[in-house]
Amino acid sequence: MYEKRLKAYKAVGYTVTRPSGEQEAQADLRFAAIERVAVHAAIAFEEARGCKIESVESDTRGFDLISRQAVSDISRGSIETRFIEVKGRAAVGEIALAANEYKPAQRLAEDYWLYVVFNCASHPQITTIQNPARFDWEPLSKIDCYRIKAEAILKRN
Q: Is residue 15 in a domain?
C-alpha cells in the first residue's frame, strides 16, 4: 500500500545531513589534519624536484602553492612555475574543485597543477595532474537562497 503511494512522488532534489556541535568540530579537525598531510606531501614532492615553494593557502587565490624551479636548475633559460592546488583524502575518494579553484585552472591552463594525495590517513600517495581543467568535470550546484513571488504569498492568506 505504501509502495503505491510512494510511486506517485517525484524526487526533486536531495539533502546532505551534516553532524552538529562536537561531531562537526571533530570532523573539521580530521579534515584539517588530512589537508595538512596532503600539503606536506606536495611540498616534499616539489622540494625533491629541486623547487622553491611559496604557500599561498590563506590568500584565496584558487591554488595552495606556487612552485618555482630553483635558479641553479635553470637549463632552458626560463623558470618553470607551477600553481598547485592540493586535495587530500584519508583514503581514495572523489575530488571536487570549488569555483574559485576551477576558474584559475582554466585561466592558467598548463601552469596550473592539481596534486591529489590519496591515503593521507595511512601511506600518502600523490598524483600530479597538469591542466586539470581539460578534464570533463561534472558541475555541482548548491542552493544559496529561496524565493517566492508576492502573488503566491497573497494567495495563501
A: no
Residue 104 Cα distances to 85, 93, 99, 100, angstroms = 10, 23, 9, 7
CB 82 within 8 A of CB 93: no
Q: Using DSSP, state whether 103 is helix, strand or coil.
A: helix
- Provide the pLDDT for residue 9: 43
pLDDT band at 143 (very low <50, low <70, confident <90, very high): confident
- Domain with 118 in it: what CATH number? 3.40.1350.10
**Within a domain: 65:** yes
* C-beta separation of 151 from 122 below 8 A: no
Count of domains for the chain? 1
Instruction: Label residue 12 by pLDDT band (50, 70, 90).
Output: very low
Domain that holds residue 92: 23-133
